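Reminder to self: tokens first, then the designed residues, so the page reads top to bottom the way the pipeline ran.
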């Protein structure tokens, strides 16, 4: 993570940082609750569900990291998905509509 930051790959550094924090929080969740952690990526919610006391300053930090990574993920997904959607979905959708119209 720090190497990514040092080479100015800030979005990747923050993404890896999010993964590190998420894995640590989920490990603490398992230790505290003796069950599998929730299948979520919201850092503050994981901490709260694990019974970890989080002060306001750290809530803001966890929320900021979570929001950044959710937005990054949505941007990456849309960049990867849009070319496929533009090429394939209209054709496939029209074919399905034709089939359903015929019967």
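Designed residues (103 positions):
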């Amino acid at each position: 993570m720090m190497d990514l930051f040092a080479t100015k790959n800030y979005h990747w550094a923050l993404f890896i940082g999010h993964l590190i924090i998420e894995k640590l929080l989920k490990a603490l969740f398992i230790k505290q609750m003796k069950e599998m952690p929730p299948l979520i990526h919201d850092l503050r919610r994981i901490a709260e569900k694990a019974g970890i006391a989080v002060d306001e300053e750290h809530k803001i930090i966890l929320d900021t990291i979570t929001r950044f990574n959710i937005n990054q993920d949505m941007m990456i997904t849309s960049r990867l998905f849009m070319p496929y959607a533009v090429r394939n979905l209209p054709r496939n959708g029209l074919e399905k509509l034709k089939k359903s119209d015929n019967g």
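The mean pLDDT is 80.
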